[in-house]
Amino acid sequence: MAKFSSDLSAVIAQRHGIVTTDQLTADGWRRDDIRRSVSAGGIVRVHVGVYRVATSPDTFESRCVAASAADPSVVITGPAAARLWEFRHVFSVEQPIVLIEHDRSPIRKGVVIRRTNVLDATDWVERPDGIRVASPVRSWFDCARDLDDERFERLTEWVLDHHASVPTIWAMARRMSTRGRPGSARVTRVLSQREPWQKPAGSGLELKVLKSLEARGVTGIVRQHPIRLPNGIVIHPDGALPDIRWAVEIDHVEWHGGRFDAQRDKGRDRQLRRIRWQVDRVTDQEIRERFAATIDELVELIDLRRHSPAA
Prior knowledge:
Blueprint: H1 6-14, E1 18-20, H2 21-26, H3 31-40, E2 43-47, E3 50-53, H4 60-70, E4 75-76, H5 78-85, E5 97-101, E6 112-116, E7 124-126, E8 132-134, H6 136-143, H7 149-162, H8 166-176, H9 184-192, H10 204-215, E9 222-223, E10 227-228, E11 234-235, E12 239-241, E13 246-251, H11 258-274, E14 278-283, H12 284-289, H13 291-306
Parallel strand pairs: 5-6, 13-14
Antiparallel strand pairs: 1-3, 2-3, 4-5, 7-8, 9-12, 10-11, 12-13
Helix pairs in contact: 5-6, 6-7, 7-9
């Protein structure tokens, strides 16, 4: 029986035990060798021209590699992509969910097919193991058809925290939300619940606070400055002064998404203190009802931070 070369063995190991006919023939295998190996149980046919080495386990990742190898146009998306990106708030699936153009049918079993006429090059990435997976933002949008509003709202906040900016998800929503597209109504409902200052066209309260601080002589404020927490998560506070490790966050007390994230925010603040960052939070209600006093307090806190031995 034909054997794999060391180079092909390394590729197969990286690709979760998946190998294609083209890879085998390039490695010196003949068609008869492939047929004999299938008959003997050395390799298992997964799709046309795609096999799994029998000694490799049949895993979710191997199924995704096999689906990607079956046709260069398929992209893993929805809850399947969410599993690959390790999204929270999405149920786990075992079968790959694949996007396929309307005029193609390369895979007929072992996957859930979803057809699309909108799939730009920026909508997907190819992993080193050969899996073509929808980008985090496209995966987020495609999850909308599978989740209820509450769970999708939680997912939206998680994606904003870990993968995307507010303008990015709004741009995806505008590009994808057409009448009849599954999930588009849910995307619109959830995003429309965000206050105007939380939308890309008018982060009004955030901008008003930061501009007012600058007018009071506070220089060097950076919007959405990336900070890597000890747990590996990267956050982007509304405003930051990196030189003194100070940040300000503007919280919305009425939008009901806040109740899901209060515990998370407290945890993030503790993580920030572990790396000597100070975060001060103000609410939209404070800004609207006592704007001048709130700015005075922030200026005082910044001054205290500048003169603190911990800064």
